[in-house]
Amino acid sequence: MSSVPAPASRAVLFLAVASTAAAVVSVLLILGIYFAGVTPHPALFGTALWGLPVGFVLLCGYVVLDMRRRRRLRAQIW
Question: Where are the transmembrane segments (predicted)?
Fold first, then answer.
């Protein structure tokens, strides 16, 4: 077994980071648009509302996948 994460594990990590980054950017856009005195688009609210929890769950899934990989790797060494 290799110590390099599997492609599926990397994909989960990439999706988690992308989801979290999109949520943070949408929150900043919402604040900026409110300061400009305009009503933000509802899609920005949806991205901000769902992006962080989805990113958190995906990051937790990545941690579980990585723990499994490390246990298998450690069991193979012994």
Answer: 12-37, 43-65
- Give residues with Cβ within 8 angstroms of 4, minimum separation 6: none
User: One digit per residue, pLDDT tens: the chain, 78 residues?
Assistant: 566 778 888 999 999 999 999 999 999 999 999 999 999 999 999 999 999 999 999 999 999 999 998 898 888 877
Half-sphere exposure of 54 (CA within 13 A, CB side): 18
Residue 70 CB: number of other CB atoms within 10 A? 12
Look at the block and give the residue holding tokens 């009503």: 39
